[in-house]
Design goal:
The chain folds into three domains: about 400 residues, Glycosyltransferase (Alpha/alpha barrel); about 100 residues, Immunoglobulin-like, CATH 2.60.40; about 120 residues, no CATH class. It is built from 13 helices and 25 strands. The strands form four sheets. Strands 5, 16, 17, 18, 19, 20, 21, 22, 23, 24 and 25 form an eleven-stranded antiparallel sheet that branches. A seven-stranded antiparallel sheet has the order 4-8-9-10-15-12-13, with no helix packed on it. It has a five-stranded mixed sheet with strand order 3-6-7-11-14. Helix 7 runs parallel beside helix 9. The longest helix is centred in the N-terminal third of the chain and has 23 residues. It starts with 8 loop residues before the first strand and ends with a strand. The N terminus and C terminus are likely disordered.
């Protein structure tokens, strides 16, 4: 295939990095993502976060996994001292594997020796716990523990195996075959023997094995693994899993076959991991029906069940999707892991179709979900990401395992700490989701200051120097510093919200470009300079009138960033529930946020036990005008506990909905944008 013919790219650290050093490498089609070493972030938003991830988050996660006893579980298996007192949930092995994946990508991108040492130490400990037949799990199959595969509904054995395989894929593609890769191969062989065509016709309650098998099969040129992934995808939706208390088969997507489903439902992370694995299977197998099914589910889910931030999951009970238009801001679950999984699905669909809407949702999710979870120092995280905090958070334990996913403040660790390690692996591989190469056409889907040297399929490379203050500033300057000596085309994504964008071509001419993909005029050559100018002034965004939880409210966005109101930015004694948005006051940019006009409601009279309703529709009295600065949602709660809201009720409205034409809808969510 043409994508595998790209030349090897040098690492930024010691050693040679294999060309396909990226999480997703389809075996069909010519379009590919960048290898991690083809782009070096130089400064700005994502460069800072990637550096913090490397310098703080890795060690933080490693220390907590050790402290919680999740690594000791492997040592106990190796020593034969397992028993009923195993610490951690049944899926805690997977957090070790996700951290290993993050370390593998980071070492592959930078050549960092300390990161490599951390990874190899983990490999030694997990490898010692592997059984002779390849089975590897610390919760099942050992003395004092339940039997293997005895709880497919909630045991997560295959889920954990899938994450191990993804870690091995990262290692195989950045280093080559080694002990970690061999461990994963033996696990995959055991899975295929146990659950293959002649084995047990079952699935895991938590999809993930599909992803791991498909990508490991690609990495090791082992079609048997990809076929096993297909078997798991096709088996789901036929009621093969047993019931669990309070939750039906939709919880783990076992109610409707993947090919027949119209929308994602049930547990959000489960649904999204399954969809990503289904895309892998569909692409490699040329299964247009399956690919179309996932595209159909993406469209309806994004249009009707996705938050303005890109977050997915409206229910706390099942960490799952609600019904169409069920998007309450204060009870939004929006698990961080679901945002990571959403990016995984959208990226695979982008590679398969070249449709810009998938890149738009990736950008929205990166800036407003992935970037929101970690604290600025990389040592505390949000698990759930509501769009409204009614009561200031105060129940987060600053130096202990937190039992709750909510709280209004970022926590250092959770009893279920899937999100910190998921963020770590995503930030470590950020470059892999930024651009694509298809023959001699290079497309920049995400905008960041970076130096690129992109290997072209027919030999040679395109070198680019990108400098920008994005997302706070909309000017993106691209200089071509290297070319292959033949015509090469360059394409740039113009986000869906960027009406009024302008592009300066290499000849100096400037033209308007519509949202979508802008093709730079002519073939680019060394010495060319291209400037994309995106309008990042603050703008109002109205919810679809069918989202009743925020009817009569408005949000403010700036570029790709959703803004929010925090109580710390209001006058003393005034809460975020006591203000209304004043449309008559002009929005203006302030720092990386926006200055807005508000109206403070009068303090209500005591009601002496009466119900909170009234017999008259007369509007409430208008209070005093105030102003406040809205800040990026990804920075909320960085200044301490407080209340927060993204959607603000508009003064004088009792049920107003958006009035902008449908063609101005924000890409990725059924939410309307008005300037």
């Amino acid at each position: 295939m043409s994508m595998s013919s790209s030349v090897d790219m040098p690492a930024t650290g010691p050693g040679t990095i294999l060309a396909p050093a990226r999480p997703v490498v389809p075996t069909v089609g010519t379009r590919r993502g960048l290898a991690l070493t083809e782009m070096v972030l130089t400064e700005g938003f994502w460069a800072v976060r990637q550096q913090v991830n490397r310098s703080a988050t890795f060690r933080h996660c490693l220390d907590w996994i050790e402290r919680a006893g999740w690594l000791d579980n492997f040592d106990r298996v190796a020593a034969g001292t397992t028993g009923p007192d195993r610490p951690g949930w049944q899926f805690s092995d997977s957090e070790v594997y996700k951290l290993m994946e993050a370390l593998a990508w980071e070492h592959g991108r930078t050549g960092d020796g300390e990161v490599e040492a951390q990874l190899l130490a983990l490999v030694d400990r997990i490898g010692a716990a592997q059984d002779e037949d390849g089975y590897l799990n610390t919760c099942f199959g050992h003395p004092g523990r339940p039997e293997r595969w005895s709880d497919l509904e909630q045991g997560h054995e295959l889920y954990c195996a899938g994450h191990l395989m993804q870690a091995a894929v990262a290692r195989a593609r950045t280093h080559g075959p080694d002990r970690l890769v061999e461990i994963a191969r033996r696990v995959a062989d055991n899975v295929c023997e146990t659950f293959g065509p002649d084995g047990r016709a079952a699935v895991c309650g938590h999809p993930e094995i599909e992803l791991g098998l498909a990508e490991l099969g690609r990495a090791l040129s082992e079609p048997r693994y990809v076929e096993q992934a297909r078997l798991f995808v096709d088996r789901r939706g036929h009621g093969v899993l047993g019931p669990i208390p309070l939750l039906g088969p939709a919880y783990f997507q076992d109610d409707v076959p993947v090919r027949e489903a119209e929308v994602w439902r049930g547990h959000a992370v489960r649904a999204l991991y399954l969809a990503a694995g289904a895309v892998d299977v569909a692409v490699d197998g040329g299964d247009e029906e399956l690919l179309a099914a996932v595209q159909r589910q993406w469209a309806r889910t994004v249009e009707r069940r996705t938050y303005l931030t890109g977050g997915m999951g409206a229910h706390h009970q099942d960490e799952g999707f609600g019904e169409d238009w069920e998007l309450p801001p204060d009870r939004a679950y929006c698990e961080t892991c679901a945002s990571v999984a959403s990016i995984m699905v959208s990226w695979r669909l982008l590679l398969a179709t070249d449709e810009v809407r998938y890149a738009d949702l990736i950008e929205r999710t990166l800036y407003n979900m992935v970037a929101t979870s970690p604290r600025a120092d990389g040592r505390a995280f949000f698990y759930a990401n509501p769009l409204q905090q009614r009561v200031a958070g105060g129940d987060v334990l600053p130096d202990a395992v937190n039992p709750r996913a909510e709280g209004g403040l970022r926590a250092p660790w959770f009893e279920v700490s899937c999100c910190p390690t998921n963020v770590a692996r995503t930030l470590a591989s950020w470059q892999a989701y930024s651009a694509t190469v298809d023959g001699d056409v290079v497309t920049l889907w995400q905008h960041a200051s970076a130096d690129l040297r992109v290997a072209l399929d027919d030999g040679g490379a395109l070198g680019l120097r990108v400098r920008t203050g994005y997302p706070e500033h909309g000017r993106i300057v691209i200089e071509v510093v290297e070319g292959p000596g033949r015509p090469v085309r360059l394409r740039l994504r113009v986000p869906s919200w960027a009406r009024g964008a302008r592009l300066q071509d290499p000849d100096g001419s400037v033209r308007d470009v519509a949202p979508g993909v802008a093709v730079v005029a002519g073939d680019v050559r060394p010495g060319d300079r291209i400037v994309l100018s995106l309008p990042v002034e603050p703008r109002l965004t109205w919810p679809d009138e069918r989202i009743d939880a925020v009817r009569g409210c408005v949000a403010v966005e700036r570029g790709p960033v959703v803004l929010c109101l925090e109580s710390v930015d209001l006058p003393p004694g005034l809460g975020t529930d006591a203000v209304r948005f004043d449309e008559s006051v002009q929005l203006r940019a302030e720092g990386d946020g926006a200055r807005v006009g508000l109206v403070a409601l009068p303090v209500p009279a005591e009601v002496d036990g009466e119900l909170p309703f009234r017999a008259s529709s007369a509007p409430a009295p208008v209070g005093q005008a105030v102003s406040a600065t809205l800040v990026p949602y990804h920075r909320w709660a960085e200044r301490g506990a407080g209340t927060m809201r993204v959607f603000i009720p508009v003064v004088g409205t009792t049920g107003r909905a958006g009035t902008s034409p449908a063609d101005e809808r924000v890409s990725g969510a059924d939410i309307r944008d008005r300037r």
